[in-house]
Amino acid sequence: MLQLREKHLTDKEIIKIARKLKSIVKGSVTNLIINDRPDIAVLCEADGLHLGQDDISYEDAIYLAKSICNKWNTSVLIIGGHFDEKIIREALVTDSNIHRFERKRKVFLYSHGTGCTLSTALACFLGQNLSLKNSYLNASEYLVNHYLLLQKNSLFNFWS
Fold first, then answer.
1. Residue (of 139, 92, 88, 132) closest to 116 by Cα position
2. pTM above 0.70?
């Protein structure tokens, strides 16, 4: 995965860079993810979009994901950790379905990387030929148990 995170250049400069990066990763296993800018993600035909809690609402994220799925014949995972709520609301959006999930937010001493962990676990379960829904459910359970185990065994202390 290659993530373009740029906040200081002009739109034209970001689009130029994004299109160049897309041409470099095209045909490879590397996906181009654009941060915070759905317009640029669409214009450069990025493989994904990262949005923070202040960028868009959950419902707007689902609407955008549905549009992306229909345009690019893909699926989109909306990771709810960035939405500042007591209940984490996530969704798997395909061209024909919206699978919505809710779970109580768990508080970890160190939570950076939970979205990446969830995405990686999801890919692993999909690789085992589980359905999208079952892959998400297993990945979500793995994520919570993994971080609780690390916290229980004080394996986050080296970041403090």
1. 139
2. no
**3-state SS class at 37:** coil
pLDDT per residue as tens, the chain (160 positions)? 788 988 899 999 999 999 999 999 998 888 888 888 888 988 898 877 777 666 778 888 899 888 888 887 878 888 776 556 788 888 888 889 999 988 887 777 666 677 778 888 888 898 899 988 899 899 989 988 888 887 777 655 544 4
* 1, 15 contact by CB (below 8 A): no
CA-CA distance, 143 to 114, in Å (whole number)?
Answer: 7
Strand extents, DSSP E, the chain: 2-4, 32-35, 48-50, 76-78, 87-93, 98-104
R_g over Cα of the chain: 17
**Which amino acid makes up residue 57?**
S
Q: Which of 52, 125, 64, 55 is nearest to 91 (CA)?
A: 64
